[in-house]
Amino acid sequence: MPPRNSALVEPGGRIGHAEVDFNGTILMVCEEFPEFGIRKPDPIHGHSTTLHLHVDDADATIERAVAAGARLERAASDAFYGERSGVVIDPFGHRWNIGHSIEDVTPEEMQRRFTALLAQG
Length: 121
Description:
Helix content: 10-25%
Radius of gyration: 17 Å
């Protein structure tokens, strides 16, 4: 299937509907439309949601996101759960954890590592 990256834009420039194709997975997004109860995140009060995007190369994807206007919240690093990942905030305020696998970790080992991480403080 060819990429379906498309958008509907109202005359004032606000994006009413956009489709982004992530290798066959379609993500549909829009800008804030308070008149329909659609509001942007409020980063001042923290994020209630993080979108996790699993990619082939987290470092390159994060770099592209920042070049396209995202703000780097956390640079990519190796994590206890077997993934290299980092976090960006897109221009609309959404928080994205972008990562790729670096090792297979069993649920038991992941729990052991998580418990050890929390014990560090």
